[in-house]
């Protein structure tokens, strides 16, 4: 009798994502670190926000209309676990790199009653500090994610506080309160998603892309260089 377990294979796609890591009971004495590979589908539904309930009660439905929101429906595809946290983090980093490089195209032209674009920015930093409180090594990166619900096939532009654009800000007439910044950053070792027009970024320092429909994907990440001291010598990575 063959007691070998069947292997399950799943082709990774750009529309997949990983959940946050959690701790679950493994046995009576220990716990296990877990993460889920999931597919998230968004649907446009009527949603009432807390600040709009009073308007609806007062009979202003026809004047203001019912608000719309894009709700997420999550389907868990696979679940992974490890008793060692560092092993699971290494696995997560590998899967995230693969998802980042997966090709994604805007193949449909959906129609939404309410367009919406979300930009999420995450700063990641890790360091090693010994028992004497001395920092020996560190690394950091900035990750930018996009989630778009737009009608047709528009081109989306994301402005950055790139130091090369300092003094070239464009203020539109409809901007009642112009947005200025004094915090300019020098970007180094930037990697973009396949949907980004890299030539436009090099020329104008603006991220220009046609985002996949209702897909939470990573647009780009930036590695930040750090110095660390090792045996009285400063190294650069």
UniProtKB/TrEMBL annotation:
Gene Ontology biological process: endocytosis
Keyword Cell membrane applies: no
Taxonomic lineage of the native organism: Eukaryota, Metazoa, Ecdysozoa, Nematoda, Chromadorea
Annotated Gene3D superfamilies: Mu homology domain, subdomain B (2.60.40.1170)
Family according to the record: Belongs to the Stoned B family.
Domain SHD: 1-110
Protein name: FERM domain-containing protein
Domain of life, source organism: Eukaryota
KW Cytoplasm (keyword) present: yes
């Amino acid at each position: 009798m063959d007691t070998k377990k069947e292997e399950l294979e799943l082709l990774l796609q750009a529309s997949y994502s990983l959940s946050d890591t959690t701790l679950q009971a493994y046995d009576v004495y220990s716990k296990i670190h877990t993460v889920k590979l999931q597919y998230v589908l968004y649907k446009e539904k009527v949603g009432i926000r807390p600040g709009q309930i009073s308007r609806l009660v007062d009979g202003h439905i026809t004047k203001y209309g019912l608000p719309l929101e894009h709700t997420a429906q999550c389907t868990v595809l696979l679940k992974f676990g490890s008793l060692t946290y560092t092993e699971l983090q290494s696995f997560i980093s590998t899967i995230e790199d693969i998802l980042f490089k997966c090709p994604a195209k805007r193949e449909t032209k959906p129609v939404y009653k309410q367009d919406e674009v979300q930009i999420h920015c995450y700063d990641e930093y890790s360091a090693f500090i010994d028992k004497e409180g001395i920092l020996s090594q560190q690394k950091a990166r900035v990750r930018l994610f996009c989630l778009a619900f737009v009608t047709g096939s528009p081109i989306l532009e994301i402005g950055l506080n790139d130091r090369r654009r300092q003094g070239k800000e464009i203020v539109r007439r409809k901007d009642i309160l112009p947005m200025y910044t004094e915090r300019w950053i020098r970007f180094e070792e930037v990697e973009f998603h396949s949907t980004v027009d890299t030539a436009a970024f090099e020329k104008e320092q603006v991220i220009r892309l046609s985002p996949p429909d209702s897909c939470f994907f990573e647009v780009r990440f930036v590695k930040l260089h750090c110095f660390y001291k090792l045996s009285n010598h400063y190294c650069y990575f």
